[in-house]
Amino acid sequence: MSLNAVLRTATSGLNAAQMGLRAVSDNIANVNTPGYVRKTLDQRPLVVAGQGMGVQVAGTKRITDQYLTLASQTASGEYSRWDAYSQYMDTVQGLFGDPASESFYFNRLDTIFSGFAAAANDPASALLRSQAVSNVQDFLNDTQRINTQLTSLGDTMDTRISADIDSANDLLARINELNSDIVRAKLIEQDASGAENIQAQLVDQLASLISVRVSPHAGGGVDVRSTDGLMLAGDEAVTLVYNSSPGSPGNVTAVAPNGGAPRPLQLNGGEVQGLLDLRNTTLPELSDQLGEFVQRAVEQLNAAHNASSAVPAPATLTGRKTGLDQETALSGFTGRSTVALVDASGVIQRRVDIDFDAMTFSVDGGAPSGFSAATFDADLTSALGGMGTASFSGGVLSISGSGGLGVATEEGTSNKAGKAFSHYFGLNDLVRSSGIGTYDTGLKPTDPHGFTPGETMTMRLSQPDGKQLRDITVTVPAGGTMADLLNELNSTSGGVGLYGSFSLDGQGRLTFTGSPPTNPTLSMMADNTARGAGGPSFTQLFGIGSGERAGRANQFKLDPAIVSNSSKLAFAHLDLDVAAGAPSLRSGDARGALALAAAGDVNTSFGAAGGLSDVTMTVSRYASEFSGSIARQAADAQSRADAADAVKTEADARRQSTESVNLDEELVNLTTYQQAFNASARMISAAKELFDVLTNMI
């Protein structure tokens, strides 16, 4: 080996040792710097013509483990998801109050029933009646407060998701810019570890917001993709957009820098996913279940109230909005019922027995005469013989007495959609609704649907994670029955048949069920239908879509007449077996109050809502199930957050054990590089001495 070769070898070793010492000093100086990853030299032997010519430094590299980095980022995203979810579920649980407190929401139902039981012991007590009314009012006020706050939480989710998406866009842009800096530094063999450390910290922040997959970028830096492989940053950064509209699942799409159609982003973790889970699924389900619970509780109170009467009887009984025309509303009843006009002392002055099976009226025990469902109001007015009138307008049935007479009903065996005659029409409801109030329409496949052919409604089908599948516009068919409408809705060409199906149950409830494996959800984007002139839309009548159902709990309020005068509570039963001339309504009768007190123990059919499917149980039992489901969801969310935190802590610890600076190890490296530097320096000194000797010899 020539002296020049020895000198070059020693010089390369000297330079390598200097660079190594610089790397060690950087590591030691940043031992406590968050996010700093220790670095080392990438050294390779320099071989020329088969001979070793020293050492070549290919660059400085960071000590990382791709598997541990991925595990840490995945764990961070999972923790962020469940931490956000758990925080808001704790807030949701707090809306219902402390189960140990008397003000606990679900305890208010028991307070209502105990209040009516107390009033039954002394029906003449104005104080007990007023307290019973206040108990119902408190329950409804609390319901509206909770539902309003659930809606506000949904708005909060929108705000937080939008802010997170803005942060994610900023991170993607900065990660993409650093790629250029890193590639440029590596091309000129400069130390790019500083930029790589900053980029790694940005990727960690991004992974806590949205789930990503990171891989090495050609020439240096990283490529960032979504979990389904969509490129987010690398050569260029996309722009993420959060899409939300009331009553429809929110979702995130990616728009390329050069434009083009937005592409849906699949999220499996990160804070955004946790917030989307709340916004798209949990909060709407809770509002829906709250609405179902309140509706059924109100129905049982109204059932007891409709089966009773105030003393004296009210001059007019006005029903709720059924959303149906008279013929459809009066068709399908079975059994018998009675409408009576009574004087101030409770004595019956006119009695009309209604036989729905035979479609006949019997006046004051006389021979039956037929009536028609289409002209029920006129036929009943005629049967009342000038002492009273009946009218049906805008889907509302009303019966009035004349000349100071009051109106009372006896439900008998009448039934339609599980409700007796007065209850079905809401003639003597204790709790009124500003909307339809119930989605148990009583419609059968053979009944007319009532919508105008050619009217349209647009439905959006989405995956459970909010990713949109398709918007479908359904046109009301020429066929006029519910069966025709169902066929059109479930058509595979113009309806939702490729994604799921609508079905009509025995109570007249219309529901949509998504088909596996996608199990899509359905929301209404536009509804231009109306059942009759000024009637409800398809969405309102059947409660289709989370947007419509979420507001149901806010529709209920006490009858204003009863609020202003508690003596109008229906505490007495119309007694049809008294002797002629004896009062059929008596002020001391408390059977109605007892029925109201027992309303929580009557089995009722609950539709699928929230975490519960179709069930039949008492209102009190459903309250317990509902309360328990909220507690379970909150506890499960906290458990998942704790588990994710434990995994994240372990993953971070293992990652840091690889990436962080170890002072003992750096001390060894420092000694090694110092010795290597001294050895190279001595080799240079020896080469110089040898060169001097050779020069002197010449």
What is the element layout, followed by pairings?
Layout: H1 3-29, E1 39-48, E2 51-62, H2 66-95, H3 107-121, H4 126-187, H5 193-209, E3 212-216, E4 222-226, E5 231-233, E6 239-245, E7 248-256, E8 259-264, H6 271-306, E9 316-318, H7 326-330, E10 336-342, E11 348-355, E12 360-363, E13 368-370, H8 376-383, E14 388-393, E15 396-401, E16 406-410, H9 421-425, E17 431-433, E18 456-462, E19 468-475, H10 482-489, E20 500-504, E21 510-514, E22 521-527, H11 538-542, H12 546-550, E23 556-558, H13 560-564, H14 591-597, E24 603-606, E25 615-618, H15 619-659, H16 663-697
Antiparallel strand pairs: 1-2, 3-4, 4-5, 6-7, 7-8, 9-15, 10-11, 10-16, 11-12, 12-13, 14-15, 17-23, 18-19, 18-22, 20-21, 24-25
What's the count of strands? 25
Fraction of helical residues: 40-55%
Q: Structural class, from secondary structure content?
A: alpha+beta
Which geometry do the CA atoms define?
elongated
Largest sheet: 5 strands, antiparallel
Cα distance spanning the termini:
20 Å
* Stretches with pLDDT under 50, minimum 5 residues: none
Work out the helix count: 16
Mean pLDDT: 90
Share of residues in strands: 15-25%
CA-atom Rg in angstroms: 38 Å
Largest sheet: spatial strand order? 13-12-11-10-16
